[in-house]
Design a protein that fits this description.
mainly alpha; 2 helices
Length: 68
């Protein structure tokens, strides 16, 4: 008889425990980290939009100067 089968009656000694339930403080920290990440993404998107607008202005200016 294998060791795993013998241990079944001992409360499943060979079974890996599942993930621990996070504490309320850990859940709050996770929520705050997600909120921070969302804010960073929002700011980076705004910066990217501004950079794209500036690039388009420069391309339009070049086109008006060179006629291309």
């Amino acid at each position: 008889m294998s060791e795993a089968i013998k241990n079944v009656g001992l409360g499943g000694a060979d079974v890996e425990p599942g993930p621990a339930v996070p504490s309320k403080a850990e859940r709050i920290r996770l929520d705050l980290d997600i909120w921070d990440a969302d804010r960073i993404v929002e700011v980076k998107r705004a910066e990217l939009a501004e950079a794209e607008r500036r690039r388009n202005e420069l391309l339009d200016r070049r086109k008006s100067i060179y006629g291309r």
